[in-house]
Amino acid sequence: MSAVSDAPAVPRTLVGIEGVSRRFGAVTALDEVSLDIRQGEFFALLGPSGCGKTTLLRILAGFESPDAGAVTLDGADLLALPAHRRPVNLMFQSYALFPHMSVARNIAYGLEREKLPRAEVRTRVAEVLATVGLTEQAARRPHQLSGGQRQRVALARAIVKRPRLLLLDEPLSALDKKVRAEMQLELKRLQHEVGITFVVVTHDQEEAMSLADRIAVMQDGRVQQVDAPVRLYERPATPFVAGFIGANNLFEGTVAGDGLSVAGLGTLPARGGFAAGAPALLGVRPESVRLGENGILTGVVADVSFYGGVSHIAVRVPGHDRPILVAAQGPSQVRAGAEVGLGWSPDDAVLIAR
Amino acid sequence: MPRRRLIYVPFWATYVFLYTPIVVLVVMSFNSGKSPYVFQGVSLKWYGELAADATVRQGLVNTLIVAAGTTVLSTVLGTLLAVGMARHTRSRLLDALGLLPAVLPDLVLAIGLLVFYSTVRMTLGLHSVILAHTVFGMAFVAAVVRTRLTHADTSLEEASRDLGASPLTTFTRITLPTLAPGIAAGALLAFTLSIDEFVIAFFTAAPTEPTLPIVIYSMVRFGVTPEINALATILLAVSFTVVIVAQRMTRLTESLS
């Protein structure tokens, strides 16, 4: 049988990262990190500062070498190539635009290094300028542009090289809120349009969730979980992910037959294939918690804040040190001081090994 | 109120002390009389005599050759030294040793170089003065360029490599243009330092090829003439122009980047 082009795409690995470690003196920036980044996907490395995500990005770009481990691109050893010979481009957090060159010269720089004919360089620069909407700013210097425009130039300069892999270091962090939202959509549109595999590094979980097809959550040089944003939100695999991604109500206890047995609160319902008696964490999202006359727990409303579309209600439950967060649609009916019951469906609660 | 004004007296006194000799020198260079102390009338007579003096002319040519050679050598070597220190070593000792010739007493350098030249049996001439001046000129250029390098954004060089430029292309297309203001300032500094350097030139020049400061020194030994005032005034004008141009250039290129 011959291959059919529109057969269900089997995700093909573009970048294979295997057991990569990197130490800086006593600090372990990366500890045996293994990841597969697939052809054509928008991949995010998410984690707090110092988790090793930037080191991993710099290893992919060729500015750092790992102490141990292997990195392949299309099955070929990537680490053997110096930075300037890799089919990989990086969009710097600071953008790193060349201040002594115009926008057009900045973008042409990478193509000129490939020794392409001048006419081709000119057409490709014009094309990419049109793609990012900066045709009229072509002759300007970087310092004459706004933050958002500089970011587009940095992006254009990287994608014009048509790399196999585009790395983006905190791409939206230098922009103000409104421009950020615009550029977020723009990045997604561009990624679809040019079909390049994107790897974005960010500490902002909303940014990662909204942009990426898959996210690797990192902490202390280790990969905690790799999943699609929705899976990551609904089924966090480690206590760190449960606390880092979105708001969560977490309870510590031991697994009982039909949930988690928590000291002072009784057994809280949840589903999960853990052996009874194992120590675990139960996580339930604020929007999964229902307020009612009676429920699994009872508490006193401590605070109600209305955010337009939703209300956030904090409920103090005796025996639990942190207030339980509840998100309700629309303006809330309860007032601070009222006694309420809290309940959730066992399907909405997730058990996490600890 | 009078008390507050009194505070300014030492301030102005300092300026008077600093600039009176220079003002007197410039004014006296336009004196028509022969005495360097009594002003008799305005004239450009001494500038004319200066132009006619073959020794002075030869001294000036020698000095310009030395200054030009020193500037070229110091700028190239000093820039490379700065890049090496900033990008390829973390040794603070090497850093300090690289910049040391800028602060070493001239006499130490002069004697050291003279001993060195005679050890390797090098004949003295303008070339030996150029080499000697390059020793400290290079350190000054390196110091200026080094300062700029430490403030420069290393991600520019990384971006260049990322876009496919070899290390050499990155150096010529990105590093050098970013450093240009520093390099220009360093070059002008080396030029001005070389032009009026006396001690080291005196030790390392051949007696037959004196530089201008040495020529002036031998003229002064027979008494200060208005001709020397005129010469000093010209040197002053050249130094001023160079310093002002250097500052302008630095500011201009800085506002561009």
From TrEMBL, chain B:
The keyword Heme does not apply. The chain crosses the membrane at residues 7-30, 64-84, 96-118, 124-145, 183-208, 228-246. It is found in: Cell membrane. The keyword Transmembrane applies. Keywords: Cell membrane, Membrane, Transmembrane, Transmembrane helix, Transport. InterPro entries: Bact_Polyamine_Transport, MetI-like, MetI-like_sf. Residues 60-246 form the ABC transmembrane type-1 domain. CDD domains: TM_PBP2. It is a multi-pass membrane protein. PANTHER family: PUTRESCINE TRANSPORT SYSTEM PERMEASE PROTEIN POTI (PTHR43848). Belongs to the binding-protein-dependent transport system permease family. CysTW subfamily. This is ABC transporter permease.
